[in-house]
Amino acid sequence: MSARILLVLVSCALSVVTGLVIARGGAGGGKATRQRPVIGLSMDTLKEERWQVDRDLFTEKVKAAGADVLVQSANSNDAIQLQNVESLITQKVDALVIIPHDGAAMAKAVNLAHQAGIPVLSYDRLITDCDLDLYLTFDNVKVGELQAKFLADRIPADGKLRVIRIYGAKTDNNAKLFKQGQDNVLLPLVAAGKVEVIFEDWAEDWKPESAKKITNAAITKHGANFDAILASNDGTAGGAIQALTEEGLAGKIIVTGQDADLAGCQRIAQGTQAMTVYKPIQSIATKAAELALKLAQRKPLVAKDAISNGQVEVPTVLLDIVSVTKENLRETVVKDGFRKESDVFQ
């Protein structure tokens, strides 16, 4: 048994190890016997459609299970998000779910919650360098691999693929994991001379306008002599496609994405975006509600995987993802009820 687990057992704190939860006690947190537990949800932002869906589904599932939710959004500001967490702690929530803007900055939030006896679930994005209780996410390395594999499958038999790479926000650990997955596929192809990366940059806070500037800069430097844009999500794909549209290149350049945003799905149907990675929001929101409620009620739960956050091996629940193209739009996002066919195909 590890020293960490021994310490947890002695202190009666909460820790999640593979297949086991030990309840974190403390007068500061809500009581496990409360009839209606209260879950605090601290969100990075609600600017993007995807996060509005997460909030609504999570809240719906928690309330249906007989608990209440307090939601705070930080508008992508670390200081505000920390204040939001402090407010939720003051309101004595029974468990805290955090979607961090900056995973490193929110380590302090986890420490503050633990001082109050409140367990913390990190939702979709990893909070680093702290004794985090639980992490729920999709396989983000695989997201990047699916995006890059889509491009790899389209390398000309007698040539190479010239690519612009647009990464996500540097403050988002997921952006680094997406890049890691992309690198797993692309770097061997670069070394073999089958792929050439002609331009690359990080999009500040995942802003579409930042992706547009990156694409404009690449076109200014290289002209229209490229084949694909490896954009890490649908928002940045949209910014890139706006730049391509202005140059008369939309639909002629392969563009990847992620999140299956409505606008992204519409672009796929129209032919200006080639693919997206569908991370079933229904799945993660439902699972997060289930796990958060168990944490709040101090019930056992199972985490089969573990991911290092720089300080501890964080018990992790990983969910499946799907590559979506024009050919399977109806069989994936529409069939799941995530998007309406009339909305996607206008």
What does this entry look like structurally?
The chain is built from 12 helices and 15 strands. The protein is an alpha/beta fold and 346 residues long. The protein has 2 domains: 169 residues, Response regulator (Rossmann fold, 3-Layer(aba) Sandwich), CATH 3.40.50.2300; 162 residues, Rossmann fold (3-Layer(aba) Sandwich), CATH 3.40.50. Strand 1 and strand 2 form a beta hairpin. The longest helix is centred in the middle third of the chain and has 19 residues. The protein is elongated and about 65 Å long. The N terminus is likely disordered.
CATH superfamily of the largest domain, by name, is Response regulator
Number of domains as seen in the coordinates:
2
- How would you sum up the global shape? elongated
Find the CATH topology of the largest domain.
Rossmann fold
Largest beta-sheet details: 7 strands, mixed
Report the count of strand segments.
15
Order of helices and strands: HEEEHEHEHEEHEHEHEHEHEHEEEHH
CATH class of the largest domain: Alpha Beta
Question: TL;DR?
Answer:
The chain is an alpha/beta fold.
List the keywords:
346 residues, seven-stranded mixed beta sheet, Rossmann fold, single chain, alpha/beta, four-stranded parallel beta sheet, 15 strands
